[in-house]
Specification:
alpha+beta; Triple-stranded beta-helix; 4-stranded antiparallel β-sheet; elongated
Length: 148
């Protein structure tokens, strides 16, 4: 049987993980439309605008300002993509963004630290750009789509 100190350490880590999971689940993005998609010739690119990730005040985690300039490239035309990033420490200001066509994979905490940004539809071949992103909180961006 583990020592009392070891059991206390394990319990503290479990509580910390639950607090992080709850804060991510209740978080959202602020800053307007976060995602845009463009036809770049033979495929599409999603661009992520600067935005703020807001965690609930009672969680004790600070709001994080994420820099502009993130992209996801090589995407198919006229397809709904769900954009996310992984940040278990909840402080990365330049995360690596990912896009999937499977909504479940993009859900907050699908894996520990996953943050959802929301859906965006790439334009049809030869069409103009599109915008999107944001889920109705908790777990995603403000003023957007209800999380299925």
């Amino acid at each position: 049987m583990p020592s009392l100190a070891t059991r206390h350490h394990i319990e503290k880590r479990r509580v910390d993980l639950v607090k992080r999971t709850d804060a991510i689940d209740a978080s959202y993005t602020a800053g307007g439309a976060v995602l845009s998609a463009a036809d770049v010739g033979t495929d599409c690119t999603i661009t992520i605008a600067a935005h703020t990730r807001v965690y609930p005040a009672e969680s004790g985690f600070p709001t994080v300002s994420l820099a502009a300039g993130g992209t996801v490239t090589g995407l198919t035309f006229a397809t709904v993509y769900y954009v996310y990033y992984d940040d278990i420490d909840m402080r990365d200001t330049t995360p690596t963004y990912h896009a999937t066509t499977t909504v479940l994979e993009a859900q907050a905490n699908y894996v520990a630290g996953r943050h959802a940004l929301g859906p965006v539809t790439t334009p049809a071949d030869g069409a103009g750009g599109t915008s999107g992103g944001g889920y109705i909180p908790p777990g995603g961006g403000s003023g957007g789509t209800a999380i299925p």
